[in-house]
From TrEMBL:
Keywords: Endonuclease, Hydrolase, Nuclease. It comes from the Bacteria. Gene3D superfamilies: 3.40.1350.10. It comes from Caulifigura coniformis. This is Restriction endonuclease.
Length: 335
């Protein structure tokens, strides 16, 4: 079925659905810029052009825009649409649907009808699975398929985030120094997933949010966290503590440098942290940055590597990767 509306209507629709399904609020201009970053070869870039132009889209084209935006904000692992998801699932289990030796082409009845039946079931057009696909719906991965289908489905307007608790505004990642409302969290999981997908934005986030990101990583490693005031903190942004069996608490001092472009952490900044480590008798210090240390700064750290560590951009990216909780697309399982 085709729908004819101004382009703005379709953009508003996928932005609203991204908020509902992923819990991430994006502005329409930001959504368009994310969609334009890379366009999949099989997707029509209908979002490009004057928002007031009248365009005619099929439901599948609207879904393709939604799926791509969900992928761009880090909510799903790949921009595979709902029908593509079912095709892959059925293809992996064709052998369960009966004799298919004479149907090497997936478009022939066995697989094609199975995708139709499963789509009708998931879209609420049928209450029970047909005998043809009942066995597929009893497979363990079917529940994953249902969740992955729902988040991609433009007709399903229910929240699909695993812990949906409202919408976080993406702009806050870049403009606000406020911590999450949840006292047990320093950095929202949805921001982690976004940065995992859009790593180039790492050096654009608010400097305070970078401190929260680093704090969140070490909180998950079991450290107690003390975050400084952000200004006038004498060069120490975060203090980590963890109890040890045969000694007092391990104390680690962290200095965070959210830099952009080619800016590097200078030697005097590293020396200042080293002085704090010694004055406070801390176990070690860590300098974390969104860019990199200057060569002499790196050498200074490495010469004292037992008590002076460094986390440069590639290390921060790895932290994000470890913490990311992206909804993966079920592969359909092995035969």
């Amino acid at each position: 079925m085709h729908v004819t509306r101004v382009r703005q209507y379709f953009l508003d629709t996928i932005v609203e659905l991204t908020g509902i399904k992923a819990g991430v609020g994006v502005t329409v201009p930001k959504a368009v810029s994310l969609l334009k970053k890379r366009t999949e070869s099989n997707v029509t870039p209908w979002w490009s052009g004057d928002p007031l132009d009248v365009i005619r889209l099929e439901g599948g084209e609207v879904e393709s825009g939604l799926v791509l935006l969900l992928h761009r904000v880090g909510a799903i692992s790949e921009p595979l649409d709902s029908i593509g998801l079912l095709i892959r699932f059925v293809r992996a289990h064709l052998h369960r649907l009966g004799k298919v030796e004479d149907e090497p082409d997936f478009r022939l009845p066995t697989g094609y009808l199975a995708v139709q039946d499963l789509s009708a079931l998931l879209n609420g057009m049928s209450e029970e699975p047909t005998e043809h696909v009942r066995g597929l719906t009893l497979l363990p991965e079917w529940q994953d398929i249902k969740r992955a289908f729902a988040i991609r489905n433009v007709m399903d307007r229910l929240p699909t985030s695993k812990s949906w608790n409202g919408i976080v505004q993406l702009d806050d990642l870049f403009e606000s120094e406020a911590a999450p409302a949840d006292p047990e969290t320093y950095f929202d999981q949805r921001f982690i997933d976004y940065l995992n997908a859009q790593g180039e934005d790492l050096n654009r986030i608010h400097w305070r949010q970078f401190e929260y990101l680093v704090a969140e990583y070490y909180k998950r490693l079991g450290y107690r966290i003390k975050i400084g005031p952000g200004r006038g903190d004498d060069g120490v942004d975060i203090i980590l503590e963890k109890d040890r069996v045969f000694a007092g608490p391990e104390v680690i001092l962290i200095q965070c440098k959210r830099y952009s472009g080619t800016n590097e952490v200078k030697i005097n900044e590293v020396k200042a942290l080293w002085a704090d480590v010694n004055v406070r008798a801390a176990a070690s210090g860590l300098i974390a940055t969104t860019t990199r240390l200057a060569r002499n700064s790196r050498e200074y750290c490495d010469a004292r590597h037992h008590r002076l560590k460094r986390a440069e951009r590639e290390n921060i990216v790895q932290m994000l990767r470890e913490m990311a909780d992206v909804m993966s697309s079920p592969s359909g399982g092995a035969r």
